[in-house]
């Protein structure tokens, strides 16, 4: 990656010459610039101090010298790092100044000293000190603002770099498409149109689902909820389906509409592996074939059935028209965890909005004030870091790992060794963990079937506590309701034309990537961003 930077000289703090954080303008070739001028002259008067926190070296002499050079991304980040070091050093110096001034005030007010000074002299000295203190306090405020600006710039640079990575991946995608011109009817214009949108626009009524989004395996139910003689009705991509077990115990998924006169089949019963319509008793097997047609001459009739499999305690369907892929992903928690709750909820929101919400942790201290985030402080900066691949990573400063698993799954592991005090730790530092699985099945354009599974790597006894599952459900619903009222409000505004991704910031990284992934699916891209295979 090459980022073009104009480095006139080094500035502390650095200034992005390309744009402020509120602008989306780009430099030449989509790079970003670092503009720098010489640091502040002079400095604070040397003072003796015995406090180790003030024994921090002035970083200005070690600032990397990039004057009149093009900086790549790493160099630009190095400059930003020095900028923060300088802010840190300066803030310490400011505090030291205030401490010295306080010492002087104490000296002036010393009752022993007062004997030798007139009241007027005392007044004068105190007034001077007050003035100095006021200036020092102002200096602290300036330092605070400087730190905040430096952090904002760092976050902005991170966003630019991430966008650049996505842009490069998509350029490769476009180049691959252009590599076969003799067979491709796509014009350059079409390829250009397939570039990711720089600004996300998710507004207006949800568009009809693209066929590409259906060509995935979708978990639709927990195995434990499907007994031999029961059935589970569900909507998927605006079509009604019903799952039940055949004679061999294997699950099947058929259209929940009788071929005779469109009666919902789930109002009937399951007998010997066949679902019976409650209206005139037609019976269907798990492959959709009508096998019984009482009181009339039998004719061959079939209702639509979807590929359906059971794996690791979940039932999966393939709603797309393409042939299903061979592998169904594993959603089990890591070894050492035990499943404590499996909950299903039908929610009146579009599944993308729910995913946006689940992929965002920065909202917790504002939204979940009655549940898990009660008493959380608001960190000065929340970040999502993605060290492994584009759709998984961890939250800083929270000990929470998170992954978006296409097409609609969120996995998260939360370190909870210190309940209520989550900041400043990583999941590895915590001794106990909670693992969560959220599946957001697109039932319709305003409805989601949510599958939630919670596992713990401690307190296995809880599994045997009577009525514990009701308690887990109560807690899960309480947390979800805190989100739901907000997401419902967003949905209404989105339908009315507002963009729910109007102004993404650094902690929105995972949500933005989900939207970029989904945009690519909707555009029919062969290579999807952030994934190794389509
Ligand atoms: S509508 Fe189902 S059997 Fe008549
Ligand atoms: Fe939430």
UniProtKB/TrEMBL annotation:
Polar residues: compositionally biased ranges: 179-190
Compartment(s) where it occurs, according to its Swiss-Prot or TrEMBL record: Plastid, Chloroplast
Keywords from the UniProt entry: 2Fe-2S, Chloroplast, Coiled coil, Iron, Iron-sulfur, Metal-binding, Oxidoreductase, Plastid, Signal, Transit peptide
Pfam family, one: Rieske
Signal peptide, first to last residue: 1-19
GO cellular component labels: chloroplast; cytoplasm
Species assigned in the record: Erythranthe guttata (Yellow monkey flower)
Main location: plastid
A single MF term (Gene Ontology): 2 iron, 2 sulfur cluster binding
Domain Rieske: 217-317
Coiled coil regions in record: 112-146
Region described as Disordered: 172-193
InterPro entries named in the record: ARHD_Rieske_2Fe_2S, Cholesterol_7-desaturase, PaO, Rieske_2Fe-2S, Rieske_2Fe-2S_sf
Protein name stated in the entry: Rieske domain-containing protein
CDD domains in the record: Rieske_RO_Alpha_Cao
